[in-house]
Amino acid sequence: MSKDILITGAAGFIGSAISKRLIERGENVIGIDNMNDYYDINLKKSRLEHIKNTENNSDGKWQFFNCSIENKKELDKISDLFTPTIVLNFAAQAGVRYSIDNPSKYINTNLLGFGNILEFCRTKNVKNFIYASSSSVYGGNKNLPFKESQSVDHPISLYAATKKANEVMAHSYSHLFQIPSIGLRFFTVYGPWGRPDMAPMIFAKSILQKEPISVFNYGNMFRDFTYIDDVVNAIESCCDKPAIKNKNFAFLDPNPADSFAPHMIFNVGSNKPISLLEFIEKLEKEFQFKAIKDLKPIQPGDVEKTYADIDKIKNWCNYVPKTNFDDGIHNFANWYKSYYG
User: Fold this and answer.
1) Which CATH number characterizes residue 150's domain?
2) N or C: which end of the chain has fewer CB within 10 A?
């Protein structure tokens, strides 16, 4: 039987991809997005068109509302129309560096807006709430790979701080109102329909336009690049398996990864860090152009290396990344050439 699923940030990279997947499997998806101009709005419109063209999409399977999660009155109107059993929150003001100069955008969307979504879940008695956290919450941690059991009390950007706050806010609602909630800490997602403000798209554009690429920390940067299809697999699996309480929670020696509430946190990564220089080399081969690299010092808010331990989500829902890096880069490069010409 089809479920009604609300997805915020539905015109975004991850939101559009999971919307398409869930429609394909027969679910009814209510998408909302404020279509802001943080990056190319035409790309967002193209993603929405891509969703409309999904196989199995019929009347009522996909409905979209241009709405900001900060606007509670608009959310209330949607609440009057639908009673979703699952809510996926992927609406957020993203970007580490952008948060340094534009803090109010992060406070409004990632805190106030997230609070509105939690209230939506409470009033609609949602059975499964899944929200986007980020690998950025690990901040200044040096113990690799990053595990959910590690402390994340030392964020080094406001963006990371808001994502940490989301986890704490969601936990409180899970405890007070018994809302099963899962926070997914995504690690550098890449692939077709990606975000123009992220490294893969920036690198691709610079290589093809023969412009210099700013390579920070003089190239000594590693990211746990995670292909979009693997991320969607993880989200879909969590849709089918809501969070549960840990009945054996150790109150005298608490583990940050566990809870007495139905709230769980999972890393979603590839478990294979790749250097930015290697990423650029792969794109050079795909595009058959040499990159012009401009080596620079590390920027405020950046971390040198991200590396996800994914044992927890593997044990929970059998998540295993299936796309190897070469195939992922090939797919991304082909899409980029097709979309941008």
Assistant:
1) 3.40.50.720
2) N
Residues 329, 243: contact at Cβ < 8 Å? Answer: no
Does 283 reside within a domain? no
Q: Report how far residue 297's alpha carbon sits from residue 126's, in angstroms, rounded to the nearest whole number.
A: 46
Name the one residue in this structure whose structure tokens are 């412009």: 211
| 16 is a domain residue | yes
What are the φ and ψ backbone dihedral angles of 117, each rounded to 5 degrees? -70, -40
Range of the domain at 131: 4-191+224-271+306-322
In whole angstroms, give the CA distance from residue 320 to residue 325. Answer: 14
**249 lies in some domain:** yes
Catalytic residue among 98, 131, 159, 307: 159
State the 10-residue block means of pLDDT for the chain, 341 residues long. Answer: 92 98 95 93 97 83 96 94 96 84 91 97 97 94 94 92 97 98 97 94 94 89 96 98 96 92 98 94 95 89 89 97 96 96 81
Task: Please tell me whether residue 126 adopts helix, strand or coil conformation.
Answer: coil
The continuous run of DSSP H or E covering 106 comes out as helix 103-106
What is the number of other CB atoms lying within 10 angstroms of the CB of residue 319? 24
Catalytic site includes residue 336: no
